[in-house]
Every structure is written in C-alpha cells, then in structure tokens.
C-alpha cells in the first residue's frame, strides 16, 4: 500500500549509492547474491531466536535488495537479473515465516495461514504481470515485472517482519494480522485481474 510513497522517499539516496557502486564496478547480480545470503542468515537468526541480529540482518537484506535495482538500471538491466531478484525476494519472505514457525511452535498455524495467502497473492501477481506483458504492457517504474499494488506490499512486509523481531512475544498476533492483510491483497489482485483481462466484446 505504501510502496510508491516509500520509493519516492528512498529513491534519491538509493540512486546516489547505486551510481557509486556501478562506477566501482559492482555488478547488480553480486548485490542480489549477497543480499540473499544475508537474508538466509536473518532466517537462521530468527530460528535461533536471536531477534536483534535477525532484525539487523533483515534490514540489511532489504537495503541490498533496494540497491541492486538502481545499479542494474545503470549497467543495463537483464531478464536474468530480474528473475533472480524476484526468486531471492520470495525465498527470503517465505524462509522468514518458516523460521518463525520453527522458533515459536505457538505461531505455526498463523505461519501456515500466512504462507497460504502468500501463495495465492504471489500466484495472482505473477500471472497478471505475465499476461499484461503479453498484451504489451510496460512497467512504468523500470522494473522487470509490472508490480500490482495491494494492501500488503514490500513496505508492509519490512514493517511486519521487523515488528516480529522487536516484539517476538506478539509474533502470533502479528503473523495473523499480516496474513489477513496478504489475503486481502490476494483478493485485490484477483479482482484487478478480472477487471483488466475481461473480454471487451
């Protein structure tokens, strides 16, 4: 819901750092790979209930994810880079939830619900993005895929996962609330798909 506003606020700083990294010869794929490794470390920290290290690693993962795009746009974005970036994001999003389930047995049902809503929302997102591109749609923000908005986007995920690390005692409630938000997002994307893809005659 807040991704567009967040990008407007952070884009100048990320672009400035991206320019420096691209000039230094740092490839975008390296940032994606390092970010994924850091994200895996965040998941391990959650599993071990090392909540403060998990928070730091999670935020570092998100920072690196925010930098690979600006670097790619200056060195030349590739389909491979866009594909691997998306796979890295989805795997860490899911891995974090799995780690919470392993660390906190009382949160397991909520985590299953969240992963289910992720699956539905992600399916609708990827299918709609693919079909819109097939119809000639172009991403307005320069990213590899057309990102379809909703109640729960990247910004909300950063906040939700950060809160779990900060107040793990509220993890069950936080996961349930976020699962509901992702569920609403899935419905929003399905309805948007029906509207955009409905035959006009």
Describe the protein in words.
There is one protein chain. The chain has 201 residues and is an all-alpha fold. The chain has a single domain, classed as CDP-alcohol phosphotransferase transmembrane (TM) domain (Four Helix Bundle (Hemerythrin (Met), subunit A)), CATH 1.20.120. Helix content is 79%, strand content 0%. The chain is built from 7 helices and no strands. The radius of gyration is 17 Å and the shape is globular.
Topology:
Layout: H1 3-23, H2 28-47, H3 51-75, H4 79-103, H5 108-134, H6 154-166, H7 171-197
Structural class: mainly alpha
Rounded to an integer in angstroms, the radius of gyration calculated over CA atoms is 17 Å
The succession of helices and strands, N to C, reads: HHHHHHH
> Strand-residue fraction?
under 5%
Low-confidence stretches: none
What is the CATH fold-level name?
Four Helix Bundle (Hemerythrin (Met), subunit A)
C-alpha termini separation: 32 Å
How many structurally independent domains?
1
Mean pLDDT equals: 88
Main sheet properties? none
CATH architect. name: Up-down Bundle
Total helices: the number is 7
User: What oligomeric state do these chains adopt?
Assistant: single chain
Total number of beta strands: 0
- Percentage of residues assigned to helices: over 70%
Q: Write out the CATH superfamily name.
A: CDP-alcohol phosphotransferase transmembrane (TM) domain
Q: Overall 3D geometry? A: globular
CATH C-level name? Mainly Alpha
């Amino acid at each position: 819901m807040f991704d567009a506003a967040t990008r407007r606020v952070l884009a100048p700083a990320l672009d400035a750092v991206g320019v420096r990294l691209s000039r230094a010869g740092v490839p975008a794929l390296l940032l994606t790979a390092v970010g994924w490794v850091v994200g895996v470390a965040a998941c391990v920290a959650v599993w071990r209930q090392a909540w403060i290290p998990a928070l730091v690693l999670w935020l570092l993962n998100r920072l690196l994810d925010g930098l690979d795009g600006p670097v790619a746009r200056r060195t030349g974005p590739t389909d491979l880079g866009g594909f691997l970036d998306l796979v890295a994001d989805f795997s860490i999003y899911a891995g974090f939830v799995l780690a919470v389930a392993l660390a906190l047995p009382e949160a397991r049902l909520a985590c299953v619900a969240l992963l289910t809503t992720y699956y539905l929302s992600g399916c609708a997102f990827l299918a709609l993005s693919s079909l819109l591109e097939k119809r000639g749609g172009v991403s307005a923000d320069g990213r590899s895929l057309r990102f379809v908005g909703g109640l729960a986007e990247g910004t909300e995920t950063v906040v939700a996962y950060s809160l779990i690390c900060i107040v793990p005692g509220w993890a069950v409630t936080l996961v349930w609330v976020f699962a509901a938000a992702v569920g609403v997002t899935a419905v929003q994307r399905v309805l948007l798909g029906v509207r955009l893809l409905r035959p006009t005659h």
